[in-house]
Amino acid sequence: MLSAPSVVQDVFVNQVWPHTMGFFLRVCFTLCTCLCSLSSSVLQGFTCTSVRTVKKAQIKNLIKACRRRGSNKVKLEENQLTCMYNQIRGESDITSFELYPPDVLLYYNYSLVPRSSCKTYFEQLSEADFSVFSSSLSYKRSALFDNARSCLNITSTNLTGDQIAILGNMCCYLNETYILKSDESLLEKLKSCQDLSVAQAGAVQTRLISGTVTYGPISTWTDTTLRSLGSLPLYMNADFYDNIAKVNIECTVGNITQVTISDATFPFDYDDINQFNSCLSAATVRDNLEAITKKVDQEDYLKIVLAKLRQVSMPDQVQVLGAASRVASLDEINSWNITQVDTLAELMDTRNGEWDPSLAKAIISKYLGVAGNTLGRAELNAIGGPNLCSLDVEVLGNISQEGLRDADALVVSNCTTDKLRVLFNIANQAFQSRSRALISPSLYQLLQPYLGEQTDVQTRSCKLKRNSGSKYNFFFLCCRWCTC
Question: Over the chain, what is the mean pLDDT?
C-alpha cells in the first residue's frame, strides 16, 4: 500500500482540482496517522459527505487540523464550517476555543459561551474571516459585534487599543464613527481588510490628513511613510492625493508613459509596487486604461490603477476596466454607468476573473434598474450561469421564457434549491411541448441543468414508456419541481 505522503504528492503532481479533494481526504483518513501532516489544499476537501463513514474522534481531529494561520490557512466555505460546528457542538471541549479554526467559531451558538470565557472566545475569533457569511446568515456578523460589546464592556464608539486587539478582523466592519473616535491602532487593523466602504475610507482619510496619528502631518511624509500605510492609500479620493502631491516621492525607475506601457516588458520593470504607484499618474491611467488593464493582472497593482482612475472622470471607461473591475468596491460599482448590454457583457467577461456574488448582483441590478432593461437572451448570454445565481429569487422569476429558450446553455449548479426551482419552472414552460405529461429525452436534456443535484434522484423517479408514435418519453411521476 502507498504511504500517505506519496498519495498526497501524487495528488498535486497530477494537479487534482478541489472538487476531488473529498475523495483524497477519505483516502488520507485510511493512510495517515497524523492528520496535521495533511496539506491545507487536501483539508479544503472537508464535507459532511466525505466524513460520513469516519469515526467521530477522527472527524474531531480533522477539524482541529484545519486550525492553521497565515499562508497555510485552510480556506473553508460556510457549508463546510457549519458542518464542522455540528460535528463538535456536543463535545466536552467545545469551549476550548483555541483548539478549533477561528472560522468555525463564527457559527457557534453564542448562548452556550460562558460569560467567564467570552473574552477568550473573542480573542480566538479575532483571526476569523468575517466575509465568509452568506447573505442569509450575515445577521450573525452584527450579532457577534453586539455580543462583543457586551462582553468587552464597550459602551461608546471610542475603542481602546486592547478592545481593538481583541476584536481583530471584526474591525473591518466598524462604521466611520468608530474609525474617527477610536485608538489609532484601528488604522493598522484596517490595512488587512479585504475592502473598505466609501464611508470607512473617508473616515480613514480624515484621520490621516488630520496629522494627529503616528504618521504625523502630511507635509512631513516620505516615501517610507507611504509604504507603511499599506493598502490604505488605494481607498483614498482626490483630496488625499492633492495633499500628498507636494510630498517628495521619487520615481527612480522612470515615469510610466504610453511608450512604457506598449513595451513588451511592462510592467515587469516595476516589480516594486511603490515604484509602480509613484511612477504612474492618473492622467496616464485615464488615457491608456485599456492597454494597462490588458497587461497588469496582480490584484495590488490593479487597486493602484483603480485608485488613480478615481482621481479623474471615468463615465465612459467602465467597459475597458477589464480585470481592474474585480477589485472595485460595492460603492464604486454603484456609481458606475451600466445602461447598455455591451457594458454588462464586458464587465461579466470571465476572462477577467470571477466575480464575488454580491458584486455580480450589484452590477446586474444596476443594469436592470434602467427602464426597459430585462433579462433577455443577450443579457443571459452576457451574465452566464454562475453570476445569474447571485440574483434574488424574485429577480430570476422575471426571466422571460423566450429569453431562456433562446440563450446559450447556462451552468447554474451553484444556484440554491429555491433559485433552481424558479429557473426549472421557466425552462419547463419554455421548452415544453403541448403535452405536459410527456417529457422526451431531448427535452429532458434541455431541462437537466436546472435539476441541480437532484438529477439522479429525479431520473430514478421517472419511468420510460413508449407512446403511440414509438418515441420514448419520460413520465416525471415523482418530479420534485414538475407538476405533471
Answer: 80
